[in-house]
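Researcher: Last one for today. Full complex below.
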Amino acid sequence: MRLARSISELRALRTDLPEPVGFVPTMGFLHEGHLSLARRAHKECAAAVASIFVNPTQFSPTEDLAAYPRDLDRDLAMLESAGTDVVFAPTSDAEVYPPGYATWVTVGGITERLEGASRPTHFRGVATIVAKLFLLVRPQRAYFGQKDAQQALVIDRLIADLNFPIELVVAPTVREPDGLAMSSRNTYLSPVERRAAPALRRALDLAESLWQDGERSGAEIRSRLTALLRADPLARVDYVSVADPDTLEELETVGPRALVSLAVRIGKTRLIDNTVLPPGSPLLERRTSCS
Ligand code: AMP
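Model: Here's the assembly. Have a good evening.
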């Protein structure tokens, strides 16, 4: 595995890679969710590239940028064991956003809802860094997790609108044994908060069982999930959404597919999770697998 600590080193290493190249962008402090993407890129592509960069432009001034957990040595060992060929881990934010930086990629429409409504500049930061990384790494396939479903939809839009010749692969959410979706932010949870956190998965299970019992009212599913989450004294609901997976508009009636998304604060930690109805349906109808 080779490590690039600057853009020029990354460009040099990229030239020698066999294609197709699979790319896994991350913010580091890796866990099994990230590694599932890295292993898949290694398995399905001739070369696998990962990036580790806590992207400051996707955090608002009130968010956890400074506190975001970091452990580069551990991350590199994990990526090496997953078969990654090249890791891009820039030494500083200025390597990516030098003084005078002024170019932004803004995806419209779906970025205004859900995470975008709660975190107004978040997706501009995500789309900008991902577009920059796509131009540098020039992958044929990019691997993202369904854990961040709206982000995957934004990247799908970005790829289509800017004609990136990249296949988007959205991989399933990897969970702890008690159902909590793995996340670098789970380390913020105190032991008592950690015990409360699987409430998100229980709410998604409830959505799936309501759907299986024939419930098709978006309002009813939202209100039953909200009640389940509010029953936990540590949980503060930011949103419960039952939306069209293409437009993210809230559904009155659940049609052929729906994206059920949650954002919940447990103490100071904001957790997100989601499932697609009917249970087991892919998030993207078009590009779902990389064969
Ligand atoms: P992050 O480091 O949080 O920016 O995440 C990097 C990539 O890993 C994104 O595509 C995430 O959706 C994905 N990811 C994060 N957590 C999980 C998980 N529990 N299961 C699968 N993919 C994940």
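Residues 122-137 form the longest helix (16 residues). Residues 144 and 170 are 5 Å apart (CA to CA).
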